[in-house]
Design goal:
The complex is a heterodimer of chains A (198) and B (322). Chain A is mainly α and 198 residues long. Chain A has a domain of 75 residues: NADH-ubiquinone/plastoquinone oxidoreductase chain 6, subunit NuoJ (Four Helix Bundle (Hemerythrin (Met), subunit A)), CATH 1.20.120.1200. Chain A has seven helices and no strands. In chain A, helix 1 runs antiparallel to helix 2 and helix 2 runs antiparallel to helix 3. Chain B has two domains: 59 residues; 255 residues, no CATH class. Helices cover 67% and strands 0% of the residues of chain B. Chain B is globular and about 60 Å long. The chains are: A mainly alpha (198), B mainly alpha (322).
Amino acid sequence: MIAFWIIAAVLIVSALWTVTARKPIYSVVSLLLNFAALATTYLILHAEFLAVMQIIVYSGAILMLFVFVIALLNSGIAAVVLGRDRVPVAPAAAAALAAVAFVATAIAAAHAPAIAPIATHSPLGAVGRGNVFGSIGDFGQALFLSRLLPFEITALILMVAVVGVVLLAGDLTPYVPTRRRAEQTRRALREAILREGK
Amino acid sequence: MLIVLVKSAVLLLVVITTFAYAMLFERKILGWMQLRPGPNRVGPWGLLQPAADAAKLILKEDLTPKTADPLIYRLAPFISLLTAFAVYAIVPFGANGDGSPWAIGDVNAGILFLMAISSIGVYGISLGGWASGSKFPLLGAVRGTAQMISYELSMSLSFVGVLMLAGTTSLTGIVNAQERMWFLIPQALGFIIYVITAVAETNRTPFDLVEAETELVGGFHTEYSGLRFGSFFIAEYVNMLTVSCIATLLFMGGWNAPFGLTMLPGVAWFVLKVGAFMFFYMWLRATLPRFRYDRLMTFGWKVLLPIATLNLVATAAWVALH
C-alpha cells in the first residue's frame, strides 16, 4: 500500500512535469519516469506481462522516436517559451471535468462493497482466470482466441493510420529507380554547365 | 528483504570484478593476437591494471561542455549504468538440488524483462550524445539509436524461436528445457542471428559505429571524461557480459553440463560458457574491420529481419506439427 502511494505521487508529479517542462527533452525524461512508474503499478497488480509491454512498447519504441525527433529537429538546447495564452479554454475545461469525474468515481469505488475478483467468470474470456490477471498465457488466449476480431480490427485501423500519414506527409513524387535518377541528375548537371558556358 | 539486499550486494561485487578483469583480458588477448604482451607493468602479469585504471578514472577532471544540457548530461551515464546492472536482478546462474534457481528474483516473464531493460539502455547513449551539445556526440547518438532499434527487432525474433520450443518465458524454465539438447542445435539459425544482433546491441566491433574513432572522435561519449566516461565504459562491458549470459541461458544450455560431464558443478559450467562467449567477442574485435553505416542498416533490415522472420515461421510450423 505504501508502495502504491509513493508510485502514485511519482506518476502525478512526472505527468505534471511532462506537460510543464520548458525543454522538450525534459518532457521526454519525465515521461520516461512516468512510464516506469506506471509499469511498477502494473507489477504491484501482478500484471507482469502488461508491465513489461508498457516498457518495451512505450519506453523502448515510442518515446525513443520522440528523442529521435528532438535530437534531429531541435539539436540546439534552447528552451521553448510558452506564453500564458497558449492554454486553450475548452480543453482545459474538459480536463477539469474529467478530473472531477475521475475523483467522483474513485470515491464511489472506495465506498463500494468488496471488490469482486476481476472477470473470473465474465463472458469476456479468459483474461482474469485463476487470479493471474495479465499473465502471458491468459493474455495470449484473450488476444488470439476470444478477442481475435477486435484485435485484428485494431491492427487494421493502425495500418490505415500509418498509410494515411505516409500519404499526407510523404513525398508524392513518382518513384524513380536510383540508377535512372542518377542518370537524370547527371544530364541536368551537364545541361546546366553547358548553359553557364554560353 | 535483508537476504535480497545481501544477494544484490554480492552480485554487484561479482559483476564489477568480472567487468574489471574482462577489460584486462580483452587487452591481453588483443595484445597476443597482435604479437605484443599487453598490459604487464602493474602487479604480477598486469593483474592490478584494473585498479590502476579505476584510480586514474576517479582522479581525472570531470568536464562539462558549456553547450551541454547539465541535467541530462549528468543523467545519461546513470541510465546506462542502471540498466546495465538491473538485468542481473533476474539472471539465474545455477540451480539448487530442488530446482530453485540461484538468482535474486525468479520472474515468470524473465526473458521479456530482459528485453524491456535492454530497450531502455538505449536512452543512455541517445540522451548522452544529445545533451553534450556538440556535433560528434549527436551523430554518434543518432546512429546508435537507429542501429539499436533496428537490431533489437531481429534479436527479439530470435528469442521467440527459443520461447516456442521451451514453452515458457521463465529463464529457469528455458534452461531446464535444454537438459537433453541445447537449443543451439534446433535453433542454429536463431543463434547466429542472436550472436550478430548481440554484437550490434552492445555496440562492439564490427558494429561500433556509435563510437567510430576514425570518423566521430569518440562518438556519443566524446565530451565525457573521468568517472562519467567510466560509467559508459562499465555499462558497455557489463552489457557484453549480459548478452553472453543470455546466449548461455537461451542457446547453450545454461548450467546444464554437456555430454553428461557432471563432475563440475552447474555454476562452473555456466561461467565457462559465458567466458567462451566473451572470448569470442574479443576475438571478433581483434579480427574484423568496421561496417559502413548504410551497409549496417541495409544488413539489419533487408537480410537479418527477413531471415529471423523465416526462422520464426519455420519454428512455429515445427512446433505446431509436433
